[in-house]
Amino acid sequence: MSRIPSVELVVVLLVAWMTVLLGGCAVQPLASSPAQCLPALAACPVCPVCPVPEVPKPSAKPLLAAQWEDITGWPGAETEDLLQAFSTFLASCDVLQKKAVWRETCGSARALEGRSVEAVRAWFESQLQPWQLVNPDGGREGLVTGYYEPLLKGSRKSSQRYAYPIYGVPADLIDVELGDLYPELKHMRLRGRIEGRKLLPYYSRADWEKAQRSDNVLVWADDLFDVFFMQIQGSGQVQLDDGSRTRVGYADQNGHPYRSIGRWLIDQGELKAEQASMQGIKAWARAHPERVQALLNANPSYVFFRELAALDAGPPGALGVPLTAERSIAVDARYSILGAPVWLATTWPGSERPLQRLMLAQDTGGAIRGPVRADFFWGSGHEAGVQAGKMRQKGRMWILLPRLHIPPDGQR
């Protein structure tokens, strides 16, 4: 049995221990400093001050209520353009008027009489409320790029000259609109392919090119880069070798993210930022034919098309109406309502000359991400391609919404 010491013994031992510890102090005069009382000890290290963690700032809301006088350049030096913008807005109304929030506004626009510049300007200012688009960090400037509808040369038959396929949507591509299942995932899609009982990611560009599939080819083109850049633009016309012409438009995509091959060349040290235009990229490719496929594979995204009638009107945008050259823009539909007018304050491609005009948000694009982000549609053909290829400007945007419409709390 273990023995438990008595309380008296514990007290005696404790007193003895304290006597030994303090014995050195007992013989010192009272005037001595406390530091002389104790044996010399190493200085206690200073405890580091723990940094106070920064509280992350909440992201800025994407819409900021504005006044007309806040808008840079409104209504602009090119006031006559308001008439064309108004006509383009009426085209948007073919779709917008089906939504309750726009029905009255579109009806008022169609009923407007005496469509002078002054009357149209007064209509915009009385019927619509400007909201400035703002980035999550609070910044109000964003990137403005350009796109166009290219004209390719092609054939219905593959040959040594026409060797590059333009594909329709493959039969094994599974496309799920997640918003149909989960409303909180609106604007998100899932794409893949079935293997056994598993849904796998769809083929990347590199995997697709390795497979060299020949199923569901719409037409064959004579230039690899023309096909690649048409995938970025989202539509194009093809002049066929039999004299006819067809148009192809965006139908679907493989689900992989868009990556800029211009950025890849910059990161590789092959081009400077100011050289990474469409023309600069093509020039680099001509000088490095052995690296072309590696360059293209840097963008894993692959776009599939559908064939359309080659009409005089512009190609259809995501809104479902024909795009208007120098009047339609592609936006991120998570922040800008498709079909709405947007005042764009930017500069002409490759210059500091102001470009300020009323545009219509009629399209979207895989690379168009963020509230203050726009892709300017320049039209069809070579000259439009030159302007689009040079455009990489800073810009500000104001979306114009019906006066009685208050955006949800999460947006303002």
Strand content: 25-35%
Low-confidence stretches: 1-38
Through-space gap between termini: 78 Å
Number of domain units: 2
Report the order of strands and helices.
HEHHHEEEEEHEEHEHEEHHHEEEEEHE
How many helix segments?
A: 11
Helix % is 25-40%
What is the CATH level 1 assignment of the largest domain?
Answer: Mainly Beta
Determine the mean pLDDT: 86
Cross-sheet strand order for the largest sheet: 3-16-13-15-14-17
What descriptive keywords fit this protein?
single chain; 412 residues; alpha+beta; Barwin-like endoglucanases; 6-stranded mixed barrel; 6-stranded mixed β-sheet; 11 helices; 17 strands
What does this structure look like?
The chain is of the alpha+beta class. It folds into two domains: 30 residues; 310 residues, Beta Barrel (Barwin-like endoglucanases). The strands form three sheets. A six-stranded mixed barrel has the order 3-16-13-15-14-17, surrounded by four helices. The protein has a six-stranded mixed β-sheet with strand order 5-9-4-10-11-12, covered by helices on one side. Helix 2 packs across helix 3. The chain is globular. The N terminus is likely disordered.
